[in-house]
Design a protein that fits this description.
Layout (H helix, E strand, L loop, with lengths): L6 H10 E11 L9 E12 L3 E6 L4 E7 L2 E2 L2 H4 L4 E6 L2 E12 L6 E6 L6 E6 L20 E9 L3 E4 L3 E6 L2 E2 L2 E2 L6 E6 L12 E4 L2 E8 L6 E8 L9 H19 L8 E6 L6 E2 L4 E5 L10 H17 L6 E3 L5 H19 L6 H17 L13 H6 L4 H17 L1 H15 L2 E3 L1 H11 L5 H9 L5 E11 L11 E12 L10 E11 L2 E12 L3 E3 L11 E4 L7 E4 L2 H10 L6 H16 L5 H11 L6 H18 L2 H21 L5 H16 L8 H15 L5 E2 L28 E2 L4 E2 L21 H4 L5 E2 L2 H14 L4 H10 L3 H13 L3 H11 L7 H11 L11 H14 L3 H10 L8 H14 L5 H22 L6
Parallel strand pairs: 1-10, 18-19, 19-21, 22-23, 24-30
Antiparallel strand pairs: 1-2, 2-7, 3-6, 4-5, 4-7, 8-9, 9-16, 10-15, 11-16, 12-15, 13-14, 17-18, 20-21, 24-25, 25-28, 26-27, 26-29, 31-34, 32-33
Helix pairs in contact: 3-4, 3-5, 4-5, 5-8, 6-8, 6-13, 6-15, 8-9, 8-11, 9-10, 12-14, 14-15, 14-16, 15-17, 16-17, 16-18, 17-18, 17-20, 18-20, 20-22, 21-22, 22-24, 23-24, 24-26, 25-26, 27-28
Length: about 950
């Protein structure tokens, strides 16, 4: 048996088959009984161009009936667990298959979830790339489009949805469990036939979902589109339907106008489902989302922006991906890149998130840059030989790099030409399948003066990221005090490009902007900017000659290009001192991005980046930038700061974060972000052996959160007098003494501020004044479950709370989110027996749901003061092949990535063991090898960056 469908096999079927209709009957009337399987019945009508043997895809427990063209097939002979072999005839064929399909807990196929909050059972399907075969028999490849008719039998109280509207419903006289129980009758829901679409975007949801409805009217056609927003009953009070519908209507207005093509799929339901492996899925008429986008607790505006972006990304797919679909997964990137770009564009132009490109520049492109530097990097147009490769190609190149390159393409051809080409593409190929060449042909027709083919060859057929640097020659005084003052001028400037993998061998055409940022009052603003095109290894930038030298010269101003920018040395120094003073958030994000890339490459010491970050705390107000910077700072601490410098680094950052928190505006995004940052840093102090005022205050803040009930205000910060829970841990210094919160890399200490003596390496100092956080009023932070769980988990890592505290918190928060937090906290307890039990549970992954597995792994690898899991390094490598072979690809991926021993105290040995495993398993699945190679690269980078640090850093 093989579940790995290859491209060659799919193409062979495409050459033979045309599929007309699927009639699919799914009986989930037993969903609430705990039964492992359900009845799936499929009738397929298709035409064959020649008589031959082929197969239909089906992953199921068993086939109970199979009939082809009125001839009964023996399931024992034709079904191997993943495929049903078929002797088809020329012309029309009719196939009927009945099977017992599995309920899933991995998020692949038909996922079943029991809500711990109320015991209610929910079902939903997720198929991309080829998991429709886990629910019903089908030719599970994107280019065999068909019409689908779904009939779903479910308990009477279930809300059942599919891609198309329900046409009728009625009581079922017989179910997969036998005759109907009149006390709990089942209902069969009949849905209208779909338009021609691919199997991977069909969808069914069933359960006691609740929600809201609305409608949108197409301003051009007058067509009324029914809207729905749905989620679990336990979350419906938090369903912000008005905001969701507002974004949805704005998106439909934007896309129907820009694409000049009416929304084609009838209704537009959006359902938020539990334990979802993705952010969302573009099933036409029934878009599925992770229900983590339903905000039970307070979140920052970055979360609302992210949700809006996801809604718009999936909506763009209604045209690009659903209406017109790629033939095979080689062109997966095109639909995802297009949706990523269009989601960002609609976000910025059609919603309140007018600076939506800021988060894209800092966070989304960071994902692309990281992926593009791995040894496993690939061209945007990737070679996808099979569906396992497709599964792993939902990566930073397919999404973020592709979207960035499309943004560059828009700059290259012009916006009007890009949209004209897109409109032509939708009209020419609607309800059909295409390849990249078809899209490029439409663009070439819309932009005849541009060489689209050469552009595509340079950008889409190559791997690696361009690195752009600017060399400036100045006259007069070019000291920092003179930059931007008018006393220093630029005599010449030269821009250079090099590919991250191939250097000067690979040159790409770049269309970008360059800006000079200088001081205006306390802010840094553009002095001037201009557009610039070049495609050579280097080029003179004549526009800069004779201009005033500013504080920062920013290449790729406005972020039209996909390139890692190297700031010139003087700009780097200015950025470290003053990046928070840049007025424009997009420019600020781009400068931060340049600093992050320099750190990752070892060109900027980690401690200098952390210096700039610490200075930004309390000054940065953009929620997306705050989130991106904290993610990078935590990566620095977790992976790139050497062990001998760790305590100094975290003490400095924690002190700066506490100072910023104490002075943050009441109820602001910054206050909430900083509170969670303090908790994240506090959990990592488990690795610290010394006692410092900053650490004591962070632990005191976590204890204070747990002393305040949900919904009440946390009104002060103080160091703890004793641990919150029943665990034992000596707090060390009982009060917090330090200063204004600047993390100075040179001395490596948390300084006391102007006029005070410098604190020692541990962050303490006998002459230091009381810390700001202990003396300033602290108001406006309302406690909620998320804060409490983050605080409790931090204290568990420290040994300050135990299983009794976890159970108490879970009792007060019995939700699914509470359950996952409890699983993480339980596995995080710093006791050997806890780690032993967690490892045993992890190794029975098939018995766990996807999210529960991830929660336990997160706790298992959480920070501890002692290397409690070091013995599991060898265990990991001995079980690696089994992780992959014994689990679905989603569960296997979570095991391989989540347990990779980057937490080992002997990182060099972990790299050596990775190399040894790869050498000994050259025939291992390519997808597994890719995951391991990428994790090895992360660890090797961490070793290198740590090796560059002195003990003073």
């Amino acid at each position: 048996m093989t579940t790995n469908l290859t491209r060659d096999e799919a193409q062979s079927r495409t050459q033979v088959l045309d599929v007309s209709t699927y009639t699919v009957d799914i009986d989930v009337s037993n969903a609430e009984t705990g039964a492992p399987t359900y009845l799936s019945r499929t009738v397929v009508e298709f035409t064959a161009r020649t008589e031959c043997r082929t197969f239909i895809d089906l992953i199921a427990d068993s086939v109970t009936f199979a009939e082809l063209n009125d001839e009964i097939l023996d399931p024992a002979e034709v079904f191997d667990g993943a495929r049903v072999g078929l002797p088809i005839r020329t012309g029309k064929n009719t196939l009927t298959i009945e099977a017992q399909a599995y309920y899933s807990t991995s998020g692949e196929g038909l996922h079943r979830f029991t809500d711990p909050a109320d015991g209610k059972v929910y079902l939903y399907t997720q198929y991309e790339p080829t998991d429709a075969r886990r629910v019903f028999a089908n030719f599970d490849q994107p280019d065999l489009k068909a019409e689908f008719i779904f009939n779903v039998t479910a308990p009477e109280h279930f809300q059942v949805l599919s891609n198309r509207p329900e046409t009728s419903r009625g009581p079922s006289q017989e179910t997969s469990q036998g005759p109907v129980d009149t006390d709990s009758p089942a209902i069969t829901h009949h849905f209208a036939p779909t338009l021609r679409q691919s199997s991977y975007i069909t969808c069914i949801t069933a359960g006691p979902y609740e929600g809201a409805t609305d409608h949108w009217t197409d301003p051009s056609t007058g067509e009324v589109v029914a809207l729905g927003a749905w989620t679990r009953a336990s979350l419906v009070d938090h369903l912000d339907a008005s905001d969701i519908f507002s974004i949805t209507k704005a998106g439909l207005d934007f896309f129907t106008d820009e694409f000049d093509y009416p929304y084609p799929w009838g209704k537009y339901d959006q359902i938020f489902v539990p334990e979802y492996n993705l952010g969302a899925m573009e099933n036409p008429g029934l878009v599925t989302f992770t229900d983590s986008l339903i905000f039970r607790d307070k979140v920052t505006d970055a979360n609302y922006e992210s949700r809006a972006n996801v809604i718009l990304h999936e909506m763009a797919h209604m045209w690009f991906g659903d209406l017109v679909t790629m033939k095979w997964w080689d062109d997966l990137w095109l639909k995802e890149s297009f949706a990523d770009y269009m989601g960002g564009l609609a976000l910025a132009e059609a919603t309140r998130f007018t600076d939506g490109w800021v988060t894209f520049a800092l966070r989304r492109k960071a994902w692309a840059y990281t992926q593009d530097l791995y040894p496993t990097t690939h061209p945007i147009v990737a070679d996808i030989p099979d569906v396992e490769a497709a599964k792993l190609n939902f990566d930073g190149i397919t999404y973020a790099k592709g979207a960035s390159v499309l943004k560059q393409l828009v700059a290259f051809v012009g916006r009007e030409a890009f949209f004209a080409g897109s409109r032509l593409y939708f009209k020419r190929f609607d309800y059909r399948n295409t390849e990249l060449a078809d899209f490029l042909e439409c663009l070439a027709e819309a932009a005849p003066d541009r060489d689209i083919a050469s552009w595509a060859s340079a950008w889409l057929g190559t791997s690696g990221v361009s690195e752009l640097s600017l060399e400036l020659t100045t006259s007069n005084d070019a000291s920092p005090s003179a930059r931007g003052s008018g006393r220093a001028g630029i005599t010449s400037a030269k821009i250079t490009q090099a590919d991250s993998a191939r250097g000067a061998e690979l040159l790409r055409p770049h269309t970008l902007e360059i800006a000079t940022l200088g001081r205006k009052g306390r802010k840094l603003v553009p002095i001037d900017s201009f557009s610039f095109d070049f495609s050579t290894q280097s080029a003179e930038v004549e526009q800069l000659a004779g201009r005033t030298l500013g504080d920062i010269t920013l290449v790729n101003y406005s972020d039209h290009d996909y390139a890692r920018v190297r700031l010139d040395p003087a700009s780097t120094e200015a950025a470290i001192r003053s990046v928070s003073r840049i007025a424009d958030p997009l420019s600020r994000a781009l400068v931060w991005s340049a600093l992050e890339n320099a750190v990752r490459d070892g060109l900027l010491p980690v401690q200098r980046y952390l210096t700039a970050y610490a200075r930004s705390l309390g000054k940065e107000s953009h929620a997306g930038i705050m989130a991106g910077l904290s993610q990078t700072a935590l990566t620095c601490l977790d992976q790139w700061v050497s062990a001998r410098n760790f305590e100094t680094a975290i003490t400095g950052l924690l002190g700066a974060a506490l100072d910023a928190l104490a002075t943050a505006k009441s109820g602001s995004d910054a206050q909430l972000h900083l509170a969670n940052l303090v908790l994240a840093l506090t959990s990592r102090t488990a690795r610290c052996f010394g006692a410092s005022p900053a650490i004591a205050m962070g632990r005191g803040f976590a204890s204070q959160i747990l002393a305040v009930p949900v919904g009440e205000e946390i009104d002060h910060l103080s160091a703890p007098s004793e641990p919150v829970g029943s665990g034992s841990f000596e707090a060390g210094a009982g009060s917090f003494e330090a200063g204004a919160g600047s993390f100075e890399a040179g001395a490596g200490s948390f300084e006391a501020g102007a006029g005070s003596s410098e604190a020692g390496a541990s962050g303490t100092g006998s002459d230091a004044p009381d810390h700001a956080a202990a003396s300033l009023p602290f108001k406006g932070l309302l406690n909620d479950h998320a804060l409490r769980w983050n605080a409790l988990t931090a204290l568990v890592c420290l040994g300050w709370a135990d299983q009794t505290d976890i159970a108490r918190e879970n009792q007060s928060d019995p939700s699914s989110s509470g359950r996952l937090h409890a699983e993480t906290a339980s596995a995080a307890m710093p006791l050997p027996i806890v780690k032993i039990r967690a490892w045993e549970v992890i190794n029975e992954a098939a018995a766990l749901s996807n999210d529960v597995l991830t929660a336990i792994i997160s706790g298992f690898v959480a920070p501890t003061s002692m290397p409690l899991i070091e013995n599991y390094v060898d265990e990991y490598f001995s079980r690696l092949a089994g992780f992959w072979a014994d689990n679905s690809i989603e569960i296997a991926r979570r095991l391989v990535l989540g347990l990779y021993p980057r937490w080992s105290v002997d990182e060099e040995a972990a790299v050596e063991k990775t190399d040894a495993w790869l050498a000994a398993h050259s025939d291992a699945p390519a997808a597994l090898r890719r995951l391991l190679i990428e994790r090895r690269d992360d660890l090797a980078r961490a070793i290198y960056l740590k090796s560059t640090q002195s003990s003073r850093h």
